[in-house]
Amino acid sequence: MSITAIVPVWNGREDLAKLLASLTAQTQPAAELLIVDNGSTDGAPDLARQHGARVIPMGRNAGFAPAVNRGIREAKNEWIAVLNSDVELAPDYFTHLIGADAWFATGKILSRANSTRIDGTFDLVCRGATAWRAGSGRPDGPAFSAPHSIFSPPWTAALFRADLFRKAGVLDECFESYLEDVDFGLRCSALGLDGLYVPQAIAWHRGSASLGRWHSETVRLISRNQIVLLARHYPRWLLFRSAWPIFVAQLLWGAVALRNGRGLAWLHGKLQGLRKFSECRQKSEAFDLELLEHLREDEAEIYQLQRENGFDSYWKLYFLLTGGGAK
Q1: Of 3.30.830.10, 3.50.50.60, 3.30.420.40, 3.90.550.60, which CATH number belongs to 3-205?
Q2: Per-residue confidence at 177, pLDDT binned at 50, 70, 90?
């Protein structure tokens, strides 16, 4: 079973060096390494070539989704790994994931700054169209140490069957960067194409290496793409039925952005999303009529994990105001 590893890169030579070293050490090595360069200026592509990678130049910073899609189109093997350039993999990472009997798999991703804390596991979406990477920032523990059937893996370090992209399509480039993986997960859910969270597979992620977690551009893109997610997946009846959770979730996220000094970026993103709403709606495929049940299940799991591991103020207020958290 052969693997093509795809790594979108935009600078970050030092981070890329750590990833490349961890790829060399894999007990199940990738047969092909594609570095998709989004216009790096710090020599990262040259470093990749020295490690035997094929570098695919995008010519500009086209965003995560276009870069990954370019790599998927050029991949030659039956398995495709998508990796952030600022992640490091344990030597048996691919060995654990390739043994999963599923369409895709991802492992337990720990914070590189503090390896006792979770960076990411799998994504969950509430009715208000905001997502939570389960366990993010929490201490590692039993709640995140059992295998779990999932529909939405973080594309930080995930492994996919190449056939999956022929069934579910590739990433929606309308998103450019951020929430494109959540969109893909909702499409997988609609098609019944599930994956597996494999906590025995360990990786470490620096996180927000390109711009920073609360960079104004990051906030703008997430804010915009939350609206794009609504346009792509919520039929009209669900928009009306979930109007209050949507309002609460979006406004609370704006309050978090404001608290971090990015209120204007949040507002800018929301206005851009509203302007793109009709365009993205026209491109949308048939709506999944079972989406509400999927969202309720995700919301119940968010509530359960938050209750067991301590509530973030965002989710505490969301559940207080919406009465969510129960199927």
Answers
A1: 3.90.550.60
A2: confident
